[in-house]
Each structure stands twice: as structure tokens, then as C-alpha cells.
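Figure 2 data, in text form.
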Amino acid sequence: MFELIKNSYKIIFVGRPNVGKSTLFNRLLNYRKALVHNKPGVTRDRVEAQTNWMVKGNKFPVLLVDTGGIGGEYFKDEIIKQIRFSISSADLILLLFDAQTGLTPSDQIVLQQVRESIGDSKRHIPIVGVVNKVDVEVHEALLFDFYSTGLNSIVTVSAEHGRGIEDLKLELYNKMISCPVTILPECSDHIEHIPKITIVGRPNVGKSTFINALLNENRMITSSIPGTTIDSVDSLVKIDNKPYLVIDTAGIRKKSKTKQGVEVLSVVLAQKALERSDLAILLLDGETGITTQDEKIAAIIEKHGCSVILAVNKWDTQKRNFKFTKMHAATRVRDEMKFLKYAPIVFMSALEKQGFETLGNLIEKILKERKKKISTHVFTEWIRTEATVHNPKNAKFFMCHQTGSHPPSFACHVNDPTKIDSSLNGYFMNSMRKRWGFTGSPIRLYFIKHHHVKSRFAVNV
């Protein structure tokens, strides 16, 4: 039911901490996707992004994969495991070095681990050495050391200042076109039109485990330590044979717990992911229950106009709690999140890979509902009819029309917007859902003062 899509050449960034992998990643992507911070070890999970380069007049679809620094202080074993997994499916490896420090013993260890991973994969995967931070001539003297690595392809760049980037793209292009890689470029050509699904939730509700279960692979680092995921991570997948871009995000913490710069950036990236998404899956903890932070995250989703699924994770922890049924849990969720009463609730266990069977159909249904279009004539007549049923202040309605579908938005021209109180607005919202559904999506309903426009051919008498 779920599978990753191979639609581009996969390029893995590898190196010890703080050699500039994330800076080069963003430079080659041409926008800021990976976190860049002067604190070593900021990148923990893989960070993936799809883009198209133009090289020699040809479109070159690539999937860039940034990885955690090998030899860092945090999550050493997990990062090495992730890198080995990434290399197993890579088409090319970018091995980064730092020109300012020269070749170090840590670089040699990284190179050895990369070569061992390639050996384990039993595939020929080319390695391109990239000497970064070549900013002034004094660093050129250190370059000779890097040729002792035995790499037959070494390119010098300054990721921060953009030096050598086009030469690097050309080298990668020449390496890739000689590789027997089967890709589906039609997905990369239209990736901006592929529905985007963001996975959000507070720390340690199981987002990364959920992604791993969804993709049926250990794609994300999982840990009992809250905040393991920092960057947002994109994965292009097929769910029931339909393509989606699934985005994992950092756990959104309370403001009092996001004082460190890295954590603040993580929250910003999570919100930016919601801005570009069609659907959010809000993971809730079936073991600890709803918290005020869950409600705040739900409000952020609603604010950005995303459709939403409320997924109660870790439901396996309640299987022996016979007095607490799914009905009881759903009622509690509805009571705590009344403003998301339109959102479907699903129960699952990402750890045991349960509850995913109907997720694909539900996603497809919600995205289809989100795109519904209502003609101006039908909507105007419907509003006028409903206004005869409930209209406490006798507001008069003129033309009413749909203004957008992301989220579904409508404008009603009225004689006096102050006559639209909360009870009438709520009545219209509830009636619209009964009439047209819009399952899982917020609705925006605006009331605008109607102005009579006098014809320029009118004659004053």
C-alpha cells in the first residue's frame, strides 16, 4: 500500500560534523531547507529535498539527502545506522571535507565507514570528494592532503559564498549519466502539484516511528529522548498507487522550552511545512492523552488552513484497558478540540504498524473534499434559503460565491456585516457541512458589505 518513489538521482551528503554539509545542501537546493547552525551535530535525521538542475541544457532531477555528521557528540550509533541505510540506496555519495582544517583522522574514519557501507551494499556507488570552505588562497596548500585519500574525483567549493557550485553540478552530472539508474522523472516535473502531507505533534508522540511504519523502513532516527528530530524531512511516496510528499517535522514544544536557537528554528520549519501543505496528520498520544500543547498545535494547523486527520497513536498501550474504548477516547478528543470537530479521528499503533489499512482511502477522500467547487448561482440561492430558516438580525444577502479551495473559502455580500452574529455564522458552517461535506477541511466564510454600483449610463432626474 505504501512505497517510496524513485524519480531522481539520489545524492547522499556525508562527512564529519561542521564541514558544511547543510550549507552546501541549501546552496545546491537554492533555498533554505536544512538547518544551518554553528553548533556541530545539528543535523540528526536525514533531510531530503527534490529539485531539478539544468546542466548542459538538460534537466537533471536529483534527490539531495543531508545526513548527520559522523563522529558527533549525539546519537552516534543512530546516525551511522542512518547513513549506512542511506548509502544502500544512493546513486552517488558526496563526501565533504573542510579546507580550513585540512584532512583529519576523523575524515579518514568517515571515508573508511563509507567504503565499508558501499561494500556491504554490493553496488558500485561513485564517491565525489568535495573540499568545502576554500575561501582564500591560504587554504589551497592544504588541498594536496585530500588527494591521498585515493578518491579520483575531488572538487573545491565554498558553499557559503557559492564558489565552484556549477563545476560541482557538472561533475555530478557526468558521474550520474553513466550510472544505470531507472527513474520516473514525470513525478519530479510536477512535484509542486503533488499533494503535501505534514506529520505534526508535540515531542515524543511517535512521529518518526509513524513515518518508519508508513514507509516500511527505518528512515528516521527514533529515540525516547524528546526532540530527536530537528529538521523537517520530505519523503516522496506512493500511497495506494498515488504520489504524495510526506513531511516529518520536529516536535513543537512550548515556548518556555524553545529558548535554544536550534529548537526555535525547528518550530519555524515545522510551521513553514504546514504553510505549504494540503493536509496535516496531527499525532496524539494514546497513552498520556490530550494536552494543552496538542490544542495549540491543532490551532496552528487550523490557522494555516490545512485539512487535518487526528491520529491517536500508541493505541496498543490501551488494549488491556477494557473500560476505555475508542468511543470514549474520541469523545474526549472532541471535547478538548471542539474547533476541529470536522476532523476524522483514527486510532493506530505506529510501533506495531496497526491502523494504517484505511489511511490511504481517508487521505484521498479528504483531499478530494478539499477541492470541491460550488457555483455562484447554487451557493447564492442556498445561502438565501438558509437565511429564511435562521437569521436573527434579518441580514440581507446578495451575491455569494466561492473564492478559493485551499482551504475552501467563500464570500457573501450583505447589506450590513454587523448583522452576522456568531450563531448565524455557526449555523451556516454546520449547514454547509451537512450539504457539501468538506470532510477534514476548515471552511473560511467571509461577509462583505454590499455596495450598490450606479450605472455610468444612468440619468439623474
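Caption note: The first strand starts at residue 2 and ends at 4.
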